[in-house]
Amino acid sequence: MSQSQELFAAKLAWRHRTGWLFAAVCRLATWASLLFLAVIIVAIVWQAWPRLTWGFLTRFDSYRPEMAGMLPGILGSFWLLTFTAVMCVPIGIGAAIYLEEYARPSRFTRFIQLNISNLAGVPSIVFGILGFTAFVRMFGMPQSKIVLSLGFTDWRIPLPFGRSVLAGAMTLSLLCLPVVIIASQEALRSVPASLRHAALALGATKWQTISRQVLPAAMPGILTGVILALSRALGETAPLAVLGAATFITFAPGRLNSASDVAQHPERLLNVPFDQFTAMPLQIYNWVNEQTRDFQLHVSAAGIVVLLVILVLMNGTAILIRQHFQRKIRW
Asked: What is the full DSSP assignment across 28-83?
């Protein structure tokens, strides 16, 4: 074997050793992360186990640890996410469709795209300050009400909105909107241009091409981005704390504490957007700051487990939706 061949073999062996070492470090980092996560989850579940009962999910909050429940936070988070989705999803998807399918490349569209990307990285507490100024105080507007007669009842809309479900949902919508727009744009870009060209060649209009071909093909990515954005909103504490949302409350928004209340008093649904609320992260934050050790250890840990389970279910739903729609895509 010549000297050049020996040198090449030595370099090749060194590259193989370097590659094996890098792969080993990556595997170690992955398993170490999973190990730390498993230790944290096991510790939280162990502390939460004495309080993980059905009563914890169906009771209201209390000053006694053994009687504290998470029902106000669960119902408050449900209404928050419902109104956030109603406001955020149509606007976000519509903005993405306009930017990707209709808007021509220009300085103005590049400026909009740059600001959307920047807003996606803004800390959530900044959105909380904006929501407090714009929705809770509404630039210092004096308190007033708009009364709408709906036939069976009068709907009173307070201005400004105050520390209500609607103010919280509008703030979270601002937080989720950049994420929804970016995820929807990426999903629309992933659709092959040949699909659009084929539809247009067959005589379809621009809107028919988008609504019947492009959107169904991009739906897995769009829905995944929407659910992940709502999952982020579900776990946010800082914006709601800045808004002044309640941390201790003994009723649900609209005083609809159960399904029977909805059936007996459907008119109370109109009061839900303008009622006080709390959310699961705020309840957990309040319990952690309690001086009672049972609140700090067991009750707060039980709340964390409930929140984690709901987040895992939402993320799992995103994965299932993506797989379901991807099986139907043929191109």
From this structure: HHHHHHHHHHHHHHHHHHHHHGGG-SHHHHHSPP-SSGGG---HHHHHHHHHHHHH
